Amino acid sequence: MPTTQSIPRAGSAPIRQVRPGSAPGAPLPPRTASPAVSTSAPQAVPEGVPAPENVFEVSDLSVSYGSTVAVRDVSLGIGRNRITAMIGPSGCGKTSVLRCFNRMNDLIDIARVEGEVRYHGHDLYASSVDPVEVRRRIGMVFQKPNPFPKSIFDNVAYGPRITGMTRDRSAIAEIVETSLRKAALWEEVKDRLTDTATGMSGGQQQRLCIARALATDPDVLLMDEPCSALDPIATARIEELMQQLRTEYSIVIVTHNMQQAARVSERTAFFTAEVDPVTESRVGLLVEYGDTATIFSNPSDERTENYVTGRFG
Fold this sequence. Notes:
Blueprint (H helix, E strand, L loop, with lengths): L3 E2 L11 E2 L35 E12 L2 E12 L3 E5 L6 H7 L10 E9 L2 E2 L7 H7 E4 L10 H11 L6 H14 L3 H4 L12 H13 L5 E5 L7 H14 L4 E5 L3 H7 L2 E9 L6 E10 H6 L4 H7 L5
Parallel strand pairs: 5-10, 5-11, 8-9, 9-10
Antiparallel strand pairs: 1-2, 3-4, 3-6, 6-7, 11-12
Helix pairs in contact: 3-4, 3-6, 4-6, 6-7
């Protein structure tokens, strides 16, 4: 049986080997301090200034479900401590690509991932890599808030408990408070932590889900249309929160809201779907990837311009 690798953070100790049969949730190395990042409106990298290191490097990525190719030949890099947006019409493979970053597609029996996804230089799909450890490091927030039918406290404590991060009650309580503070929710719920989470408003539930993702001390936060089920006020809170979180985390967001992508992200990837001449089925592909300001104001591909100006999609 192959050994299992845990994935290190940037600047952490070399990759550790975990003996077969040992707990996959072995303690993680301490989080390294992220470089200072402005929380003001996203700006393109000035000419002559080196771009930040990439947390992900994707090469020739294709995702299929059974015999159907959902998206093909995707290559891009995701910068550390940046917000990267993926936009495009429905069915173009944005979410399929997003789910590759923490191996969520592994949970779909008929899914097949080809190509390469490297996380801080390590092959995320190597046979020796533990997918549970991957999902600890790379958290995910879904389209609709999905709190567990538990208390607010137990929702946030769930990840640290189940992965064995700690069993000390005071340490769990500290993780819960810290995560809720990072999700800008602590002041709203600190006096009702034992209340059922399903009784919260939609916006609060989504921020709770963000807190739950942060509780396992991830490096990256994936967000799959996190505001699609929220009202404008709740959406604004989530967007403000994203700007605060990017000082500590790398964020990748899938959104159908082009205004949202323009507001929150520094880099934008535009996907579309075209008919494969051989199979006559629609296949997603990456059309253009660059600084958000350029994608929305001066794209290099006519298909991108047609989409961001509302001519289709």
